[in-house]
Write a structure and sequence with these properties.
Radius of gyration: 21 Å
Bound molecules: pyridoxal-5'-phosphate
Oligomer: single chain
CATH topology of the largest domain: Aspartate Aminotransferase, domain 2
Distance between the termini: 12 Å
Keywords: Aminotransferase, Isomerase, Pyridoxal phosphate, Transferase
Largest sheet: 7 strands, mixed
Family: Belongs to the class-III pyridoxal-phosphate-dependent aminotransferase family.
Catalytic activity: (S)-4-amino-5-oxopentanoate = 5-aminolevulinate
GO molecular function: glutamate-1-semialdehyde 2,1-aminomutase activity; pyridoxal phosphate binding; transaminase activity
Shape: globular
Strand order of the largest sheet: 4-10-9-8-7-5-6
CATH architecture of the largest domain: 3-Layer(aba) Sandwich
Protein name: Aminotransferase class III-fold pyridoxal phosphate-dependent enzyme
Number of helices: 15
Helix content: 25-40%
Order of helices and strands: HHEEEHHHEHEEHEHEHEEHHHEEHHEEH
Length: 426
């Protein structure tokens, strides 16, 4: 099966052999590595990317959910080009950041916002803000949810053995995760056991998107909000991914008001920008001599201007309608393939994103997710790659459709997927 990949990517192999001398595994993020060596890309345009061997791929990974505007979007290029001529970083505050803050506050119904550059930084700061506000220490997170690579939340992200609390990396001391409580997603009873008066906040991906894509039980969500009120802790929505899936993210979709919200990925059209926003009384604790929040590259002019254009001109209501419609075509197509081939395959779609499982039903939490045999998924994945389609970023990721994808791209995706699923069944 791997020969499907290796026979088409000899230059990636050569680059890997060279790069691994200077970068562990030849990559700058662990999530970009896969066996037997990672793919090295040269460029992207619209719905496509190209690798160093000249292979073209229709890309449904889109920078792990970043590029709903498509690769090398003309409007973003124009804006960033103009911006860079006036300086890429100015040091003191950029004059247009307030405009972006207002756009985001109104769209996501947040009283106030602060900017960082990555989702990791934003979740790290959000839990500090929650602790400062509540004067409590404990943070509840859910098994299988990912909040970036800082120590306190890098716990039970992808454990081989679910259940007991375990850091998801070497080098994280016990003390760093002593105040992190891990519990099961979509499970009210388990949550009730840990929800108490010591807890500063519960942080969640409001729709889990780092163990495939898992539907959120709305009764569960309701119970989390109720218990947080009763016990006096905050609800933090980590919308690094979900924030770009619907016009006003998951909080708009579920019509709820979390205390703090994190945005990232898609909101700046491919430039690094993240947001921590929420209720005024929490956000007003931030400031010199009070709660620390900083970052040299925070709200740099390139990211700010790209984000203003992304949110006001590109990711409009009608763009979401378009992406959702194409994504629905994919969902339908996968279901038809499964039926035609008689394969036990389940599919879940949420807006422009979706995932498939070689299992009769979509998992509800990490325990169910990790009990699935993923070997057929890898056969499917390498087959689709060989057919010029990146169907999603990994077995624990999802597809994303951009405004640049076409119905023809969806048909090609499904053609490749059908062959992949057929091979996976053999
Ligand atoms: N939170 C969620 C839900 C994510 O999916 C990610 C990244 O995939 C992060 C946080 C971390 O974001 P970043 O990679 O920008 O640090």
């Amino acid at each position: 099966m791997l020969s499907l990949y290796t026979s088409r990517t000899p230059k990636s192999r050569i680059l890997f052999e060279e790069n691994k001398n200077y970068m562990p595994y030849g990559v700058s993020s662990n999530y970009r590595y896969f066996d037997p060596y990672p793919i090295y890309l040269t460029k992207g345009k619209g719905s496509r990317v190209w690798d160093v061997d000249g292979n073209e791929y229709i890309d449904f990974n889109l920078g792990f959910g970043v590029l709903e505007v498509g690769h090398a979007n003309e409007r973003i290029i124009e804006e960033v080009d103009n911006a860079i001529k006036e300086g890429s970083i100015l040091g003191f505050e950029y004059c247009k950041t307030g405009k972006l803050a207002k756009i985001i506050s109104q769209r996501y119904k947040l009283d106030m916002v602060r900017f960082s550059s990555t989702g990791t930084e934003a979740t790290m700061h959000a839990i500090r803000f929650a602790r400062a506000y509540t004067k409590r220490k404990k943070i509840i997170k859910f098994e299988g949810h990912y909040h970036g690579s800082h120590d306190q939340l890098l716990v039970n992200v992808n454990p081989l053995k679910p259940g007991s609390k375990v850091p998801s990396s070497l080098g994280i001391p016990e003390e760093a995760i002593a105040n992190t409580i891990v519990t099961d997603w979509n499970d009210i009873e388990s949550f009730e056991k840990v929800a108490n008066e010591d807890v500063a906040a519960v942080i969640m991906e409001p729709v889990a998107m780092n163990m495939g894509l898992i539907p959120t039980d709305e009764e569960f969500l309701k119970a989390v909000f109720e218990l947080s009120k009763e016990k006096g802790f905050l609800v933090i929505f980590d919308e690094t991914k979900t924030g770009g899936k619907f016009y006003s993210g998951a909080l708009g979709y579920f019509n709820v008001k979390p205390d703090l919200v994190i945005l990232g990925k898609a909101i700046a059209g491919g430039l690094p920008l993240s947001v921590i926003g929420g209720k005024r009384e929490i956000m007003e604790l931030i400031g010199p001599g009070k709660v620390a929040h900083g970052g040299t590259f925070n709200a740099n002019p390139l990211s700010v201007r790209a984000s203003i254009v992304t949110l006001t001109e590109i990711l409009t209501e009608s763009s979401f309608y378009y992406m959702h419609r194409l994504s629905e075509m994919l969902e339908r197509g996968y279901r038809e393939i499964a039926e035609d081939l008689g394969v036990e395959l389940s599919v879940y779609r949420w807006g422009p994103s979706g995932s498939i499982y070689f299992s009769p039903k979509v998992p509800r939490n990490y325990k169910e997710f990790i009990s699935i045999d993923f070997s057929p998924w890898f056969t499917y994945f390498y087959t689709t790659l060989a057919k010029g389609v990146i169907p999603m970023g990994g077995f624990n990721e999802e597809w994303t459709v951009s405004i640049k994808h076409t119905e023809e791209d969806i048909r090609k995706h499904l053609e490749a997927a059908e062959e992949g699923i057929r091979k996976a069944k053999e």
